[in-house]
């Protein structure tokens, strides 16, 4: 049998195709392995990086947590010292910085409106004082300061009808002992200058001994003073005499009289040529008048 001639070109082409297929498979295997290795490495690096990031993130979170805790603690601490309940005067509880707290806003008791104990030298009208740092349990009040009773005033002063401490003294002119001239009179020494009010006290005198023959003889009320002091309203009607002191006093023409005094000794007396046969005494109070508004 005659064989076919060998086609060299076809053989070479076949062999070349086989090698190409093998290379392709090997290339695919290498590529796959390399790709997987690269991906694994990449994933490893990514994991490592992520792990590192997570570690960093964890550290950062911890620091932030600590910072937040510190920030929270500070306000709490500050709140307890600076924003806590501040002392409130007037709530009835004695708190830091308060001497007392009676729950009211009045100074007129033992605890002032500023929660200090009332004192006699605190520059306040407080407690049971009748005027600024005087009266009540404190020292006596000076002239023209408020009072409620005689003990509220300084020595030598009285609590007047207007509720003010004032100088009040009593003039008593005996028509026998203080009869003659001003030198024989009754003297209130060292009166301060000012305006005074004279107020009669029941009394009267006579220039005759009984028996009386009113209205020509008997008792009457009349004042004579030195240093220009004229109390001509404090008298019974001129020329009229009364059988008793009470009836004479009941007929006074005025209940009081104001007069200005320059200060010093105030002397009053009774004039008569024969003082020995006189009787009786004329009495009146002199009181220093406080200025308006006091």
Note down, in words, how this protein is organized.
There is one protein chain. The protein has 294 residues and is α+β, with helices and mostly antiparallel strands. Among the domains are: 89-127, no CATH class; 167-288, Jelly Rolls, CATH 2.60.120. Helices cover 27% and strands 19% of the residues. The strands form 2 sheets. It has a 5-stranded antiparallel beta sheet with strand order 1-2-8-4-6. The chain has a 3-stranded antiparallel beta sheet with strand order 3-7-5, with no helix packed on it. The radius of gyration is 59 Å and the shape is elongated.
In short:
The protein has 294 residues and is an alpha+beta fold. The protein has helices spanning 8-81, 245-249, and strands at 157-159, 165-174, 186-191, 194-206, 224-225, 257-261, 264-269, 279-288.
Feature tags:
Jelly Rolls; 2 helices; alpha+beta; three-stranded antiparallel sheet; 294 residues; 27% helix; five-stranded antiparallel sheet; 8 strands
Question: What does the secondary structure layout of this molecule look like, with pairings?
Answer:
Elements: H1 8-81, E1 157-159, E2 165-174, E3 186-191, E4 194-206, E5 224-225, H2 245-249, E6 257-261, E7 264-269, E8 279-288
Antiparallel strand pairs: 1-2, 2-8, 3-7, 4-6, 4-8, 5-7
Mean pLDDT: 80
CATH topology of the domain at 167-288: Jelly Rolls
Overall shape: elongated
Strand order of the largest sheet: 1-2-8-4-6
Alpha carbon gap, first and last residue: 166 Å
Task: Identify the CATH class of the domain at 167-288.
Answer: Mainly Beta
| Structural class by helix and strand composition | alpha+beta
- Strand % is 15-25%
User: What's the order of the H and E elements?
Assistant: HEEEEEHEEE
Number of helices: 2
What is the β-strand count? Answer: 8
CATH architectural designation of the domain at 167-288: Sandwich
Largest sheet: 5 strands, antiparallel
Report the uncertain regions: 24-83
Helix content: 25-40%
Radius of gyration: 59 Å
């Amino acid at each position: 049998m005659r064989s076919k001639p060998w086609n060299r070109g076809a053989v070479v082409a076949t062999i070349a195709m086989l090698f190409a297929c093998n290379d392709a498979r090997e290339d695919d295997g290498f590529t796959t392995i390399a790709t997987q290795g690269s991906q694994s490495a990449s994933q490893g690096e990514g994991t490592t990086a992520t792990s590192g990031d997570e570690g960093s993130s964890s550290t950062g979170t911890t620091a932030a947590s600590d910072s937040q805790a510190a920030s929270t603690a500070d306000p709490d601490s500050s709140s307890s010292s600076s924003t806590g309940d501040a002392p409130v005067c007037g709530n009835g509880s004695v708190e830091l910085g308060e001497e007392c707290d009676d729950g009211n806003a009045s100074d007129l008791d033992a605890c002032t409106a500023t929660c200090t104990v009332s004192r006699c030298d605190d520059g306040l009208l407080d407690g049971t004082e009748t005027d600024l740092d005087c009266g009540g349990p404190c020292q006596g009040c000076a002239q023209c300061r408020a009072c409620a009773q005689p003990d509220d005033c300084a020595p030598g002063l009285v609590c007047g009808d207007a509720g003010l401490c004032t100088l009040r003294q009593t003039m008593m002119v005996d028509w026998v002992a203080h009869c003659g001239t001003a030198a024989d009179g009754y003297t209130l020494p060292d009166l301060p200058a000012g305006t005074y009010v004279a107020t009669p006290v029941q009394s009267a005198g006579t220039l005759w001994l009984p028996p009386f023959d009113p209205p020509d003889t008997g008792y009457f009320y009349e004042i004579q003073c030195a240093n220009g002091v004229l109390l001509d309203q404090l008298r019974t009607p001129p020329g009229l005499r009364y059988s008793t002191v009470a009836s004479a006093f009941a007929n006074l023409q005025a209940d009081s009289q104001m007069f200005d005094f320059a200060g010093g000794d105030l002397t009053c007396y009774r004039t008569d040529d024969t003082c020995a046969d006189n009787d009786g005494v004329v009495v009146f109070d002199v009181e220093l008048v406080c200025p308006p508004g006091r």
